[in-house]
Specification:
Layout lengths: L2 E10 L2 E10 L1 H36 L6 H34 L6 E4 H11 L1 H6 L3 E5 L6 E4 L1 H18 L5 E12 L4 E10 L21 H6 L6 H11 L3 E6 L5 E8 L1
Parallel strand pairs: 4-6
Antiparallel strand pairs: 1-2, 3-5, 6-7, 7-9, 8-9
Helix pairs in contact: 1-2, 2-7, 3-5, 5-7
The structure holds adenosine-5'-diphosphate.
The site of adenosine-5'-diphosphate has 22 residues, from helix 5 and helix 7.
GO cellular component, one term: plasma membrane
GO molecular function, one term: ATP binding
Main location: membrane
């Protein structure tokens, strides 16, 4: 706990004294600490690919100057590192945009059946490369929610991309959509979108922290897969903006299921 102490001299009639008040500023300290951690994390995440890029540029200007094979290989790695920086900047911008809109409730009519189909089509290159089968389990009736279509598309894309990336080659990813007459937490009718994979699952201790910025279960694997560590943080903010909720069910060896529940 951190307190700010305020002192003042007061006089009432012929009586006088000193008034001391204590203000609890713990929340401000915590917010400031979070901001400092975030800046440190962003700097670290940007510095790693930048250092690699500078190293390869130096090598290409010096020892590998006339080595055509090395040049080709190094340029490939450099393109990868530059791509990583690009994805990080894109995710940081998305995060800051969603945060700035958190109080504005989106209200366009978004057809979730169409959105699921479109996300699956857009990710077909990734699923084919990993030989992952992606299945859509949709109701016959269209499910339409008041939402920001681009943001819900981003939520589904991030979750499906993770399921394909971490679900393991040759697995199955199922995107299901259904309607609940009443969600107990939202206290009303809701649409339920879930992304289920047949991957290795996640240990229980990691689950509450998965939506923190830059939190990764296995940093090496996330970087290898081109992850920025911001995907689920973006998902959480978008779901909050829609007054919905995110549920994560996972167990080692049993796959993972990420469910987004949105008020209808
Ligand atoms: P990243 O860019 O690292 O994928 P995310 O915020 O999207 O960042 O996810 C955070 C971490 O959660 C990942 O690094 C990964 O360890 C874990 N994770 C996310 N989705 C899955 C999944 N479907 N199966 C297993 N682990 C997952």
């Amino acid at each position: 706990m951190t307190y700010k102490v305020h002192c003042g001299f007061i006089r009432h009639g012929d009586q006088s004294g000193v008034l001391v008040t204590f203000e609890d500023v713990t929340h401000l300290e915590t917010a400031e600490q979070m901001r400092r951690d975030f800046v440190a994390n962003v700097s670290h995440e940007l510095r790693t690919p930048l250092t690699a890029l500078l190293g390869f540029i130096e090598t290409l200007q010096g020892p590998a100057k006339d080595d055509a094979k090395a040049r080709e290989r190094f340029l490939g790695i450099m393109a990868n590192e530059a791509g990583r920086m690009g994805r990080l900047v894109k995710d940081l911008l998305s995060l800051s945009q969603v945060e700035s809109q958190e109080r504005i409730r989106p209200d366009s009519a978004v057809n979730l059946n169409e959105l699921v189909g479109s996300v699956i089509r857009n990710l077909s290159h990734l699923s084919e490369k990993s030989q992952v089968t992606v299945i859509a389990d949709l109701p016959d009736q269209p499910v339409v929610v008041p939402a920001d279509g681009d943001q819900i598309r981003q939520v589904l894309t991030n979750l499906a991309e993770n399921a394909i990336k971490y679900g393991g080659d040759g697995g199955t990813v199922t995107l299901s959509l259904s309607v609940m007459e009443r969600d107990p937490a939202l206290r009303g009718p809701a649409a339920r979108l879930s992304v289920q994979d047949t991957g290795p699952g996640i240990d229980l201790i990691h689950i509450p922290r998965l939506t923190e910025r830059f939190y990764r279960v296995d940093s090496h694997r996330s970087r290898e897969m081109g992850g920025t560590g911001l995907g689920l943080a973006i998902v959480k903010h978008i779901v909050n903006r829609h007054r919905g909720r995110l549920k994560i069910d996972s167990e080692p060896g049993q796959g993972s299921c990420f469910t987004v529940i949105l008020p209808l």
